[in-house]
TrEMBL record:
The keyword S-adenosyl-L-methionine applies. This is Cobalt-precorrin-5B C(1)-methyltransferase. The keyword Protein transport does not apply. GO terms for molecular function: cobalt-precorrin-5B C1-methyltransferase activity. It comes from Desulfomicrobium apsheronum. It catalyses: Co-precorrin-5B + S-adenosyl-L-methionine = Co-precorrin-6A + S-adenosyl-L-homocysteine. Pfam families: CbiD. Signal peptide: none annotated.
Length: 364
């Protein structure tokens, strides 16, 4: 089966802006426009609408994430274009586009969250419309003001990392390729990098890495002094997130995890998703033996169906403390290896109710 590629919010905004500029300059409302992509290719995009809006033109595009739908899939991205003073293209954000309020992002504080690559892509697309509208050799100088808007952008942003990144009031206009590759990890990895950049810029000394929303919630409940900006949900990107922590020179890191992910990290898996990292309960059973568990318990662990089943067996037993210590030590060693630096790695291990089963050095 061939998976269908989509396009980014940056490409959607570029197409809407080019359609609006063309309509404003020529009087023609287009059904499709072709826009340049950051990767050097071009893409034809359908226009939802293009209409006169006072002394401007408003055009809209429905963002299509292809077969890798995300929060912005089917979002309506708009561009309102009007003539401005001087020459060239002036770009600003309107309703539904977030505003940056914290350092560490590629956009300055107070500016709309339109990242540099899509900003350049939008400008190029509108410049193409200008060039096409002017007669060859014409000396006329035209300035255009472009405002990007997103329908329900503030509502959509609540489902993204924007609030914790300090981007308020809407979504970000993103995209370094212009296209969305189905089931690509690139977007998630970019979010991890951005969160770590913001932490660094805000003076966070110990990033708190969790594998999802529930483990983050339990970590912050256990450590109420931990601000949201100090946390990032890294999913299964164990190696990648530790490498990025190392690149930024953090001296310590705190992981909030559940048992199954901890065992996989202790096994040294770079990526801990079930489809690529098998949970080896035979290895776990051998570690149980190293910690002094009875042979019959080790056999039950080796034959368990899931990590949860193994944990239900092991956690009430006195030797579970030794096992949890062994697992966190091994996971911390793997984390430091992936980081490429010797840094402090602490763990908080939770059960599925949020109870702390084990924490290293009291997870200071």
């Amino acid at each position: 089966m061939t998976l269908r590629h989509g396009f980014t919010t940056g490409t959607a905004a570029s197409a809407a802006a080019k359609a609006a500029a063309t309509h404003l300059l020529t009087g023609r409302a287009l059904e499709r426009v072709e826009v340049p992509l950051p990767i050097g290719e071009r893409m034809s995009i359908a226009i939802l609408e293009s209409r006169i809006d006072g002394d401007a033109v408003m055009a809209a595009v429905v963002k299509d994430a292809g077969d890798d739908p995300d929060v912005t899939h089917r979002a309506v991205i708009r561009a309102r274009v009007q003539r401005g003073a001087g020459s060239g293209v002036t770009l600003r954000g309107g309703s539904g586009v977030g505003v940056v309020t914290r350092p560490g992002l590629p956009v300055a504080i107070g500016m709309p969250a339109i990242n540099p690559v899509p900003r350049e892509q939008i400008t190029k697309s509108v410049t193409e419309a200008l060039d096409d509208a002017l007669a060859p050799g014409a000396s006329e100088s035209i300035g255009l003001e472009v405002e990007i808007r997103v329908d329900r952008g503030e509502e959509l942003a609540r489902k993204t990392f924007n609030p914790r990144l300090g981007i308020i009031g809407g979504i970000s206009i993103l995209g370094t390729r212009g296209t969305v590759k189905p089931f690509s990890n690139a977007a998630y990895q970019a979010t991890i990098r951005q969160c770590l950049d913001v932490m660094q810029a805000c003076g966070v000394t110990t990033p708190c890495l969790t594998t999802g929303g529930r483990s983050e919630r339990f970590l912050r409940q256990a450590r109420p002094q931990t601000p949201e900006t100090a946390c990032v949900q890294v999913a299964d990107f164990f190696s990648y997130s530790m490498r990025e922590v190392g690149r930024r020179g953090f001296g310590s890191v705190l992981w909030g995890v559940f048992f199954g992910k901890l065992v996989k990290q202790a096994q040294g898996h770079r990526y801990t998703h079930a489809r690529s990292a098998e949970l080896d309960l035979g290895i776990l059973a051998s570690w149980c033996a190293d910690c002094g568990f009875d042979q019959h318990v080790c056999r039950e662990v080796a034959g368990a169906n899931t990590a949860m089943q193994a944990l239900e067996l092991l956690s009430p037993m006195p030797r579970s403390k030794a096992l949890f210590t062994l697992l966190t030590n091994k996971a911390a060693d793997a984390a430091r290896t992936f980081c490429g630096r010797d840094l402090r790695v602490d763990y908080m291990l939770f059960d599925f109710t949020g109870q702390i089963l084990h924490q290293t050095r009291e997870a200071a």
